[in-house]
Structures are given as C-alpha cells and as structure tokens.
Amino acid sequence: MHPERRSVTGMVKNADTTQDATLALKARGLTKTYGEGDATVIAVDHVDLDIPRGVLTAVMGPSGSGKSTLVHLLAGLDAPDSGDVWVGEDRITGLPDAELARLRGRHIGFVFQGFNLMQTMTARDNIVLPLRLNGLPVDEAWLADLVDLLGIGSELARKPHEISGGQQQRVAIARALITRPRVILADEPTGNLDTHASAQILAHLRQACRELGQSVVMVTHDPTAASYAGQVILFADGKVAGHVTDPTPDAVLAGLDALAGVAR
Amino acid sequence: MIWRLGIGQLRANRGYFLRTVSLIALLVAVLTHVIVIGATQATLSKRTAALWGENFTRHGSVVVTEDGMWSHQEAVTPAGLRELIDGAPGSVALAQGGARTVPMDEMTWTRADEGFAVLATYGARDVDALLQAGSLPDAPGQIAVASDLADALGWTVGDTATLYADVWVPSSDDETSGTMGDAIYTYEIVGLLSPTTMPGFWLSTPGAVVAWADVESPDGLMSMPSRIDDGVRGTAVTISWDGASPALDRYFEWDGGIRYDDVILPAASGVWFALAAVLAAAMIIMSFAVGRTQAATRSGWIATARTLGATKRDVAWATVAETVVMASIALVVGVVAGIVAAQAQLSFAAARSGIPFAPSTVSLHWAIVPTVAFATLLVTVAIAAIPAFWAARVPPVAALKPVTDITEAELSRRVSPHWLWIPAVLGPLMILAGNWQPTAPLDTVIVFGMIIAVIGIAGLAIEGTRWAIPTVGRRLARSASPSRLTAGDALATRPRLAVAPALIALAAVGVFTLWVLDQAATMASDAYVDGWYAYGEASFVGGPGSWGSMGLLAAIVLGSVVVQLVTTAIFAAHRASIGREVATRRALGLSSVHEERAQRWQLVVPQALGAGIGLVVGVIVFAVWRAMDYAIDGRETPWAAAFAKGEVLALTAALVLLATAVIAAWLTARIGRAATPLATLRPGT
C-alpha cells in the first residue's frame, strides 16, 4: 500500500532515515508553482527545511518571496507539486482531506493575522472549538493555565467584537495551544496590532516555546517581531536564502540587506 | 458617481447579483406567463363565446312550441321562427338541451360522461371549427359527439347511441304535480367534435351537436313536455342578433346582449399566482435575512468608496441603481422566458386536446411589459431597499476594521417580539373600519376576536420559530459529531439567517394548509347542501391519479422548488458572509465531508421546524376560522372525512417540501464543498 493512502492513526512513520525526532516540522524538496507557460511563478522552489521542537522560528522575506505559500504547504492547507512535509514523525503529503483535517485539528495550531475568531461565540467557546471539532474533551486545568498565562480570564464570557485586537489575538493563541499541537503556524500574528499589543503577543509566543516546550513557526516581515524568535529563516524567490541565529533586529535587518545586495 | 458606485457594487457582489437576478427573473417569468396565458384564454373565450352566440349586441330567449311561442302574446311556431331569423341578416339561433348516457336512477354524479350539453344551431356559427372527424348532423336522429366523451364511452362514427333526457311525468292524482323521468332516444353518430376539455384552459364547448331539425321536431331530444300545459312540448331557443331588427324586436324583449366573461383566468392561473406570491413573499423575507449580511460582505468596498468621498446617500442610491440594473436584466429575461413558457404550454395543450379553434400562438398585448415592469420594479425596490439601508449605515472607519459590530456581530441582533403589537392593533382596526355593523355589534366583536386570535396564533408561531431554531441549534451544538455541532453553532449563533428559511417554510405550509382545509370545507358544504355527498368528496381535488390531484401535486412540487431556490439563495449569502469562519473551522480540523454534512443539517433543520409549525398553525387557525365563519363541527359528516383528506394533503405538502429541502441541501452542499482552509490565511477573505 502506498504510504500516502494510510490513515493518520496508522500512518507510516517516516521512512526517511534523516528524520530527526527533535524536529517539529520537516520539509524536503518542497515545490509549488502557480500559472502556466510564460506566466508560471515558482512560489516555493525545492525547499528543504528543519523546524526544531520548542523553538520560535521566524520566516522572513520580502513581499512575494513565497513565505505564505511555504506556510500553507507546511500546514497541509495546500498541496505541493512535489516534495514532502512531516509534522513530527508523520508524513502529511498526499493524505486524504479527512485525515489532513484530523491532523490539523490535533497536531497543528494556527494564529492568523486577522484573528479569525468566531464572532458570534464567546472567547471561551472560541478557545475550545478545536477540541469540540475533533471530539476531544476539554482539559479544564490546561485551559485555566492558558487563560492565566495569556491574561484573558476576564474576557472569557465576551464575544470578539467586545474586546480589543490584542486580546482577540491572545484568545487565538489560547485556541492554538489548547490541543497541545506539535507545531503552531502563525501568519503575521501582529499584522493588525499596535506596537504595545504586538510586543505582548510576541512575548506570549516566545513564552509558549520556552515554558511549554511549544514549537512555533511565525511568518513576519517585521525585523522587531523576528527578533523574538530563536532562529530566523530568510526566504527569497521561493528559496531559503539564509539563517539568522539568536537574532536581534539589527542582525535581521543586516540579513535582509545582504539578501537585497545579492539580488542587486 | 452613483452609477459608477452601483456598477462597482455589482462587480464586487457577482454571486449575490446572479442569484437575485435569477430569482427576480423567475418571478417575472411566472407573472408574464400568467398574464400571457390569461390573454390567450381571453382569445379562446371570445371564440367560444362566438360559438354560443354571445358576441352579439342583442340577445333574446324564448321557448318555442309546435303551436306557438310561450311567454309572448304573438304565437310563433318553430317554422315561423326560422323565417324571422332569416329576415334579420346575421342573426343566429341556438338551442341547448341536455342528454344523459345512463338513466336517472343510475346516475352516480361522479363521472363526466354521464351527462353532457347538446347544442343545435341555426345560422352562421363556428360549429364547423369543432368538427374533428365525420360530418355535422343535418337530419333528425343524427348526432356529433365530443371525442373525449366518445373515447370514454367507446363510441365512434357510425355507432348508434342511446341517450336519455329529462321528461316531465304528470301526476295521476291532484295532490302532486308530477316527477321527472327518462325519455329515451336513439341517435346515429355521424361525427366527432373537439374534446370538451383543454389542459390548463377553461373551455366551454358542447358535448354533442344535433341538427336544427331536432329543435323543430316535437319528438326530438331538444324538446320536453310543458309542466304548464301537459302534452305540449317546447324547446328553449336563444336568438342573437346585431343592431335593430324590427321583426325580431317585435317578438323579443332583448336583453342588450350577453357579455362573455373574458376576465376568467385559465384553470392553472391560480397555481401560478400562488407560486408568484410565494416567491415574492419569500424574496422579501430573504431581503430581511440577507440585507445586513450583504451590508457586511460589502463593507470593505463601501468603506473604500466612503473614504474616497461617497456619502451615505451616494451608497444608498448606488444600491438602488444596482437594483435597477438587476430589475432590467430580470425583466428582459423573465418576460421572454414567460412568453416562451406560455407558448409551450399552449402548444402542448392544443396538441394534446386537438381542438381546431384553439389559438396556435399566445395572445400578446402591449400592456404586458409595462404591467410586469411596474410589478418587477416594486418587488425589486422592496427587496433592494433593505440591503441599501444597511449598506448605507456602515461607517467608513468601522467598515475598514477587520472585525466590527456592524460587519459581524449585529447579524444576529435580537428583534423584540413587541413587533406583534403592530399587526395585532392595526390589522383588526383596519378590517373593522370596513366591516363595522352598527345593527349587530356582537357580530363585530366576534369578528374582532377572531382576527386577534388569528394574528395572535400567527405571531406566536413566528416567535416560537425564532425561539425554536437557536434552541435546536444549541442542542445540536452539544453533539459529538463535528458536522452536527458545526450546524448547531450556525443555527444558534446566527438565528436571523437560520430563521428566514424556517419562516418561509412556515408561511408556505401554513397558507397551503389553510387553503386546502378551506377547499375541503367548501366542497363538503356544497356537497351537503346539494345532497351530492359522493360527488362533493370526489370533486375535491379528485382521486389518486386524476388530473386534479396530479395538478395539485405538481403545484406543491413547484412551490417547494421555489421555496428551495430562495432558501438556498439565503444560505449562499450566509455562507459568503461567514466564508472566513468556515475556512477557519476547516483549518482547525473540520473535514470537507463533515462540512458538507453540516451544510445539509443547516439547510434542512430550519425548514423541518418551519414546515411542522406551519402545519400545526394552519390546522389551529382554520379551527378558529371554521368555528366563527362556517359554524360547523368538524366531527360531523361530511366534514370529518373532508377535513381528514385536507389534513393528509397538507401533511403531504409539508413532506414534499422537506423532500425538496433534502435534495436542495444535498446539491447545495455538494456545490459548496469547494471551501478551502486556505481562505483563512488571506486577509479580507
């Protein structure tokens, strides 16, 4: 039987001998193109990527560099033209929709730029929604820990439009953490927030990695946001163009400048 | 500015535009169809009227006997009558009688071929156009029979038909005046005429034609003995003529002519009118349901326009301009479709019935387009006014925010049940103003109470539905099934959009139940009064497989399909407004299969609740109405049987509606399955 057709629960463990148990996410030869003929755009071009566990990893790059497409592929939201993705030890490439949905619900958390909360549900209902959708029980102690950690205890009974953008994003982070996923994918999580709220959200994401051992991949174009990460992957023209370890805003900017210099 | 804004809105909301234009076009097509078929029926009626001599300015009736004319001081025999008619150019005469194919005591009153009208004419008539085979009778003892009757009776040209006609049998004593009995006649069938029915149209053609000589013969089928002067036989003759005729005027006190009733619409028109009414009402409910959603989905576009200088009024007028475009397109498409549908119906009916003088093309009148255009504009503006109102209310700053109370949360704002006061007070007052009876104030009070009761029941039904939908939604949301809990969340958290399909189903099933029970009561009452119980029961819709029952079933299916069209349009607007939420659920672990199932639940549950409540409310409202208006006890014969039949029909209608809801839900979910979790990552999706 082709390994791509197996269920998540009975999923073939990674046959790739290079698989490292310390990785939260791995990609090999990942490629995605859009359009045809002269209009063909290679959004992601044979990318190999290792995302370690318990680390906040930032993916940075200029607009149109393909970083959002990369995140779509890593999350199993979009299918690559070629290449493979592993979430933890599970290979997700080619899985049927139902199994992909199940895997996303249990092992991947999402934090979106636009928060994407259910506007007619309370903050608490939003947080536990992934558990309900996946038939998992609510761990009240874990929920209380998350609420304390993120400081949203007073917002639980409120609906999203009744609380600030920063608070909404904290609720979204709690929703992403509630299933204890293998990895959280955050797409421009501070894109709609002011500086103060952005700093708090980034601090929370870093805290989740350091204190809870959570793995987070964050797409951002903000060097300050990237400086909260443990490592920065620089992305350009659909390829990994460099890494910055122990990043500071200046180091990230220098890396971006170097990319621009190469481009010139 | 306004025009460009309107075009911009159209482009930005293609899906809504296409669905709404399609629904309005359907409404226009139905209205056009009704009007064109009505005009065609009028043409057919005119020709039929000419057949009966009802197209003349002067008209007189008399009974002619062999020894002189009754009801007139000057005696005219049949032969003398013919001289009179010949002396007035253009005048015609017609005699009408009746014949039965079974003796009086064997009549069941349920079969159309048990009796029919027999016609004899003198002068220029359109009877020739009726002939399908053989020839018209030209001698006593000959008869031409309508082909549908001949088919039913197994007759053909050359056969001998035994017919019965009423005859007065004088009493042998002085206590009673006499009784009706059978006179038996034998006729040779020389020709076959057009059938007496034409599907979808009213037709009034004779069941049989005999020669004029029969009228002049005292032994013919057309004459019967006098009750006044025993033994003298007479024939009722109607003479029609145009203009003054000294000869005829001297003998007949003419009545100024009989105007045929050309406003009678064909048989199927009631169904089409009902469909148009259901569609119009459903679309207005739809506009309430999707108005705010539309404003929300348009908020980004509107905000951009507002920041670029458009005023609230500009946005509102732009929406009106948009609706004018929608109405115009719908008008053209709908009118053409309506005319084509009417022509198809006429061609089918004419081909099926084989009636030679049926018009081959539909009758078009210059007033059709202006009438339909006016109605379309009214409906479209009514539908568009609500989205326009909400669209104009979106402030630019709020609309530019990704999440605001206007773009999202107000979708489900609770509407206070205090609205019930408005119809509860205004309705009875308006009706009372026109029906106040100073001489019988108690009657007025009873009417007042009945109106209040009916409005109260209807109001309770609406409020009950508004309560039931989120309640059922919350119960579903506690389910362990991802599809049911997703549907439950949608029903519980967006009751405004969920309640609209339920209210449409409630209105459709409730009104149908009332109508069908009223029909049952009327028919049963007529049957009771006439003493034709069996006939009355059978004539209500007809038995299984009859044209009446098939037509009613077709109307129920059509009405249900119309309800589904509007319901799915509301659902589509709902989906468009929550596209990002659906995508987020998909990202959080909802599979496409579960999403599809959730959509089915979301579509079917409200309609099931609405149809159920509508059925119960229809029965209860009719019980109130019956008690006041008919003053009959539903447990008594013949009403008990009729009501049971009516309730079964109403239940059937509710089940058909649900069946179409299930099919529509399946189709809609299949089509809508393309939702992708990728949409979550796209800002502004």
Helix tally of chain B equals 20
Percent of residues in helices of chain B comes to 55-70%
User: Strand portion of chain B, in percent?
Assistant: 5-15%
Low-confidence stretches of chain A: 1-18
Major β-sheet annotation of chain A: 6 strands, mixed
Please describe what this structure looks like.
The complex is a heterodimer of chains A (264) and B (685). Chain A contains eight helices and ten strands. By secondary structure, chain A is an alpha/beta fold. In chain A, helix 3 (123-133) packs parallel to helix 5, helix 4 packs antiparallel against helix 5 (165-177) and helix 5 packs parallel to helix 6 (195-212). Chain A is globular and about 50 Å long. The model of chain A is unreliable at 1-18 (pLDDT under 50). Chain B has 20 helices and eleven strands. Chain B has helices spanning 2-12, 14-51, 78-87, 147-153, 212-216, 246-251, 269-297, 299-307, 312-353, 368-393, 396-400, 421-435, 441-477, 482-493, 495-530, 533-539, 547-577, 579-587, 592-630, 639-671; strands spanning 58-65, 68-69, 92-100, 115-122, 131-134, 142-146, 160-170, 178-193, 208-210, 224-225, 233-241. In chain B, 45% of the residues are buried. Helices cover 59% and strands 11% of the residues of chain B. In chain B, a hairpin with a 7-residue loop joins strand 10 (224-225) and strand 11 (233-241). The model of chain B is unreliable at 402-413 and 532-540 (pLDDT under 50).
